[in-house]
Write a structure and sequence with these properties.
It comes from Chitinophaga dinghuensis. It is found in: Membrane. The protein is α+β, with helices and mostly antiparallel strands and about 325 residues long. It folds into three domains: about 150 residues, no CATH class; about 50 residues, Roll (SH3 type barrels), CATH 2.30.30.60; about 80 residues, Alpha-Beta Plaits (2-Layer Sandwich). About 55% of the residues lie in helices and about 20% in strands. The chain has eleven helices and nine strands. Strands 1-5-4-3-2-6 form a six-stranded antiparallel β-sheet. Strand 8 and strand 9 form a beta hairpin. It is elongated. About 5% of the residues have low confidence.
Length: about 325
């Protein structure tokens, strides 16, 4: 059985469509260009600051004899900025190469850039923590060698988080699941809003955000409805055996209830199947196929069919 997951209700009156369209990872080519330009300007600014610190360290080294605290600050800043510049340069190069490669392809649902952003954020965080250690005069080499046993214990205790992070990166760099896809993961279904290193965020039909651990995505049965060219609408129900209707008559009534929507589903895809015959009731399954994914149309058809099924069950026709 799928474990229960936290469900976060959205604020009353929130515009979910607005939230989804402007998700920072759901961007267009134009936004990518603007972001690329912004990152280039930021890279140049950081480079100038880094060069200024290096110049000050080389040309005014005597100042550090008086102000040792200033040496620690500039040393930590140069360490972090140097690492950050390398990460930013790699990010810009990969981004330029990737956008040129996908020149004629849509990038609204791009997992590659999502994964790249996550990795750069993690690396920047690691180097920032190391820079803080440099600021307080901690020898990084001695620190790393002294915490080997502790690190192994921490890794063992946090293996679930590490597994989630690795699974998250695998999802980001694959094309099986993308932002905006409508999926079913175990007992949970909805639209993918975001993919983080810890969990996958779904928006269900009740406008609630469901946090699904990345490890569950790899162990549960996942159905990606957006990757299919068609959408099947299935309703399973039970009827009393005493009702004076044959399966053909029930199918005909259900067909008639949605005759105004004949052009919205695939011709001849409507069918009623008898799944099981019990002592007091019969289990049926009605199924039809939509030519594309349309949640609003699916909900209308389900409501009409459910209403007709209730009418048959309660009034006997």
């Amino acid at each position: 059985m799928t474990p229960s997951l936290p469900i976060i209700p959205l604020p009353f009156g929130s515009n979910v469509h607005h939230l989804y369209i402007y998700n920072p990872m759901m961007v267009t080519d134009e936004v990518y260009k603007k972001k690329n330009q912004k990152e280039r300007m930021l890279f140049l600014a950081k480079l100038l600051v880094y060069l200024a610190i290096v110049y000050f360290n080389l040309d005014h080294a005597a100042v550090y004899n008086k102000f040792t605290w200033l040496f620690r600050i500039t040393n930590a800043m140069s360490f972090f900025l140097g690492a950050n510049l390398v990460i930013s340069l790699a990010w810009l190069v990969i981004l330029s190469w990737y956008t040129r490669r996908r020149l004629n392809k849509p990038v609204e649902k791009d997992n590659f850039m999502l994964g790249l952003n996550r990795i750069s954020s993690v690396l920047n965080t690691i180097f920032f923590l190391l820079a803080v250690m440099v600021l307080f005069g901690i020898d990084l080499f001695k620190f790393v060698t002294s915490i080997t046993i502790v690190a192994a214990a921490v890794a063992l205790l946090s293996k679930d988080y590490i597994t989630n992070m690795i699974n998250g990166l695998i999802i980001m760099f694959s094309d099986q699941l993308s932002l905006g896809d409508h999926v079913r993961i175990g007992d949970y279904k909805g639209k993918i809003l975001d993919i983080t290193l810890i969990n996958l965020i779904l928006l269900n039909d009740d406008d609630e955000q469901i946090l699904v651990p990345n490890s569950l995505v790899f162990t549960a049965v996942v159905t990606n409805q957006s990757k299919q060219n068609v959408k099947k609408v299935t309703i399973e129900f039970e009827l009393d055996r005493k009702l004076p209707y044959t399966p053909d008559q029930i199918e005909e009534r259900l067909k008639k209830s949605i005759e105004g929507y004949n052009n919205t589903y695939v011709k001849d895809s409507f069918r009623l199947r008898t799944m099981d015959i019990k002592k007091d009731h019969v289990v049926f399954k009605v199924q039809l196929t939509l030519p594309f994914v349309d949640k609003a149309l699916e909900q209308r058809l389900r409501r009409i069919l459910n209403t007709e099924i209730i009418t048959i069950a309660e009034k006997g026709g």
